[in-house]
Design a protein that fits this description.
- This protein is an all-alpha fold.
- The chain contains two helices and no strands.
- 7% of the residues are buried.
């Protein structure tokens, strides 16, 4: 998931450099959404974790 976020961020930066504002803002928005989803899933996996039976 983090790899997709970085990919969309790079697409947004390249599109902004070439002047494609609409594509850049769309790609940046997608990257932001994917990043927040990644953070939530990461925190859930830290909280849930692997439970061991003693």
């Amino acid at each position: 998931m983090l790899r997709w976020t970085i990919t969309f961020l790079i697409i947004a930066i390249i599109a902004a450099v070439f002047g494609f504002g609409g594509i850049a803002s769309s790609a940046a928005g997608i990257a932001k959404i994917l990043f927040f989803i990644f953070i939530v899933l990461f925190l859930l996996s830290l909280i849930g974790g692997r439970k061991t039976i003693d």
